[in-house]
Amino acid sequence: MPFVETMTPRERVMNALEGKPVDRPPVSNPTNVATVELMDMTDAPFPDACREPELAARLAATGRTELGFDSVMPYFTIIQESSALGCEMQWEEKDNWPTVRMFNPIWKGPDDVHIPSGFLEHRDNVAITKSIEILKQELGNEVAIIGKTMGPWTLAYHVFGVESFLLMSVDDPDMVLRAMHKLKEISVLFGEAQIAAGADALTFPDHATGDLVSAEYYRRFLLEIHQEMAERLKVPLILHICGNTLDRLDYIAQTGMACFHFDSKNNPQEAMDIAAGRIRLAGNLNNPELLYARGPAEVRKAVNECMDAGVDMIAPECAIPLATKLENLIEIPRAVKDWCEEHYD
Amino acid sequence: MAEAKTTERLRSADVIERYGNCLELVPIDPSFHDISVGLYVKDGTCTVWTFSQKPGVAGRIEHIRDQLVGLGGMTPVDGTHDQAWFACGHLHRRPGKFLLVQAVGKARDYATPKGDMSIQDTKTKLVLSVSGRDEADRWIYRVSGEGEAPNVPMRLRLVVAGFVRYGEMEKLSDNEVTFTCGQRHDELIRLLLPYSRNISAVESMMEADAMRGQMTTGTLGFTPPT
Q: Which residues of B touch A285 (CB under 8 A)?
């Protein structure tokens, strides 16, 4: 019997996030799958597609219409809220990611943290909320619409500067905790705005990455806040942390978040073993050495490894390189379906 | 192979089905609205493709295809404005990547070089030259250098290593190489010579190109780039 899909993409994603049965693991994009070719196809190039809702929606929709993923994600970057907070921006060109100029931070410590009036109305936040509304109208309930709200740790890098913030974490941990608790309100505010706009789930990137922050730091500064986020934001949350995170995955599994989007530096089977059903996993197809640099055959092999390990949602490990070739992305859902064809009765 | 105007609106899966996989993708064409340009390959036929629908794009694609012919010695596919192939019947993949980058990057009025295959060395005061000869049904290229340099044979060996690396050529001796097809490709030699004389700089350039558009903790500024 050939494998037959029995769920809509949205049902598939939402069930997977909630740990319910699925017809097959969804192919998702908790960060995003924009490429320069898709930008040309939709006439929605960076950086405009990061700042204008109609362009953001058009580009995001290709995740479904062109690539066959089960979700769409119109928040391509990690800088929208920080731009609205007043951070100095480097918008870059079509082929590169906008970034925050963190060498020129806007705040020195927690006492400076505040939400500016008109924060949600800032064009770079409206670009996200409005694009979610457009996608909801156009794709309806067919596809899962995933939004994104940055966690306090990432926001802290942007508003305080990386070096200053990491030094603060050594010199004055209480100050860091106060900053985290104030910054988390930005995460909640922007997350709730996206939920109101129609987001089915939210990615929650918080870059307590393995090469910057220890597992103990994660427990000390972020675990409780992430637990609080899971309670306050009333949609499934997908925590995203880059790098090797196996050493903190046990803590992450205690957050109450629906899913953890994990990096290719982590072995999928080991990650699944640690998660042990307490949190779902999405990932972990390598970007620079696989999706960017190799071909469909290698992509298929990596997808099969994730499927063999039982990874709940198959996804690139992070926002894909903007010059990724389309055949590699299209191969992901094809490989998932073929795996199901081979393994399901 | 079915030929379609580049302005035809095709889905990505259809492009791959029709034209094959993407050998090389140039993210930005500075000479034409910053469009992306890909070189797709199927059964040895190379197709210059863009998803852009900007007015005049078909003309730009034809110009790039013509640059593949002029700069790389490819043969245009009859009746097309966007396709070419290597007449030897062999797909020279690595040179093809450099070729597309050059074809897109050259100014629109760039004149294809002819004549001697020589260039000033960047590491010494040598003028590097390549000459070819037919021998036992293979076209063999010999690298030589004229001028002052501390160790000319060593320098030539490194240039030959560059041809092997970037041209996917076969090394025959310390100063001789041939293409794997055994055929004459003077245009590709001219194209590859600037790369082959300076491997370290080319590697750095390629690494920088590869990192552009990657979202990592390094490119985001969270850690020093690795």
A: none
Q: Could you give the angle at the alpha carbon of A291 between the alpha carbons of A285 and A293, nearest 5°?
A: 135
Write out pLDDT tens, residues A17-26: 999 999 999 9
**ipTM above threshold 0.85:** yes
Q: Cα A281 to the chain's mean position, in Å? A: 12
Q: Residues of B at the A interface (Cβ-Cβ below 8 Å)?
A: 11-13, 15-16, 21-22, 25, 27-28, 34-36, 38, 50-53, 210, 212-217, 219-223
Task: Enter the tokens of residue A105.
Answer: 């931070």
Distances in whole angstroms, Cα of residue A166 to Cα of each of A169, A197, A320: 5, 34, 27
Distance between CA B147 and CA B198 in Å, rounded?
A: 18
B28 contacts in chain A (CB < 8 Å): 36, 93-95
A98 CB within 8 Å of a chain B CB: no
CA nearest to B22 within chain A: A325
User: What would the pLDDT profile of B120-137 be if each residue is shown by its tens digit?
Assistant: 998 899 999 999 999 999
Written as one string, the DSSP assignment of A234-282 is: -S-EEEE--S--GGGHHHHTTS--SEEE--TTS-HHHHHHHHTTSSEEE
Q: Which residue's entry shows tokens 């106060």?
A: A178
B25 closest CB neighbour out of A242, A243, A325: A325
pLDDT tens profile B150-199:
899 999 999 999 999 999 999 999 999 999 999 999 999 999 999 999 89
**Residues 77-96, chain A: which have Cβ within 8 Å of B?**
78, 93-96
> Chains A, B: CB contacts under 8 A, how many?
108
What lies within 8 Å, CB to CB, of A318 at 6+ separation is: A31, A240, A242, A261, A263, A287, B215, B216
Task: Please write the tens of the pLDDT for every residue from A213-269.
Answer: 899 999 999 999 999 999 999 999 999 999 999 999 999 999 999 999 999 999 999
Residue contact A330–B214, C-beta within 8 A:
no
Q: Which residues contact B101 (CB under 8 A, 6 or more apart)?
A: B24, B26
DSSP code at position A221: I
